[in-house]
Amino acid sequence: MGQVFLQSRRIAEYEVDLLGEPGTVLEIGPGHGVLTKILVERGFKITAVEKDRYIFGELQSLRAANLNLINMDFLDMAPGSYDYIIGNIPYSISSPIVFKLYEFEFRRSVIMVQKEFAEKIAFPDDMSRLYVNAHVRYNVELKRYVSRKNFNPQPEVDSAILVLEKKKYEEPYPLEFLDGVLVQMFSKKRKKLSNIFDICPEDLADKRPSNLTVSEILGLARLLFDSGSSAHR
Ligand SMILES: C[S@@+](CC[C@H](N)C(=O)[O-])C[C@H]1O[C@@H](n2cnc3c(N)ncnc32)[C@H](O)[C@@H]1O
């Protein structure tokens, strides 16, 4: 369950500062409550979802009028509306959590994830299915890196703090269609686009998937959708 616990109150305060004025907040995986305690003190109205029932039991000692603790898997949670979502989330399910978040309404989300995952989502250098899927859903900012030394037990990787803000999705095709195109593209990422798709804009024909911009990929998906085809060679 990715149970490494942040030891630095200063870093936890930095994360809470990124949220903004106190409002309603959903916390994913409160653990021993390093973030939760600060949220309680600052007057946020908190819903905290912890999957582990032993940790959930310990958390009962934090009892506060503005804290609602729930013992369940965040991935099974019914979507709701919060001002903010925060969490130092388990590394192994970062991707499902990031995409589940999209079902919720929120102004800003602050999450701590594995450094490499954060970089993959934040920077286009290594264009990927994950990057495009994240960027059609969110504005993404990598705020800072956090050394593994700040956790107990110490993990084998460093972390980074991401801020996600939801974007309005305005493409004419469903997100699932786009993902199908991305799967096709990135499973053949060394090939030229003209060798992946039957239909492809002329100016992109000689490019490879990893050299495209998000807007070029969205344009290509639009063309494929309009032509009723995502057929590959
Ligand atoms: C990386 S630890 C962080 C704990 C705490 N927020 C901190 O910063 O020290 C992740 C926490 O998420 C909990 N967790 C793991 N999978 C979960 C899930 N699917 N839904 C809710 N909580 C989960 C773990 O039990 C653990 O408490």
Give an overview in words.
The protein has 233 residues and is an alpha/beta fold. The chain folds into two domains: 5-166, Rossmann fold; 175-226, Helicase, Ruva Protein, domain 3 (Orthogonal Bundle). It is built from eight helices and nine strands. The chain has helices at 9-19, 34-41, 53-59, 94-101, 115-122, 129-137, 175-186, 214-226; strands spanning 5-6, 24-28, 45-50, 67-71, 84-88, 108-114, 138-146, 151-152, 159-166. The strands form two sheets. It has a seven-stranded mixed sheet. It has a two-stranded antiparallel ribbon with strand order 1-8. Helix 3 links the parallel strand 3 and strand 4 (67-71). Helix 1 packs across helix 2 and helix 7 (175-186) crosses helix 8. The longest helix is centred in the C-terminal third of the chain and has 13 residues, at 214-226. The structure holds S-adenosylmethionine. Residues 1-6, 28-32, 34-35, 49-52, 55, 73-75, 88, 90, 93 line the site of S-adenosylmethionine (SAM).
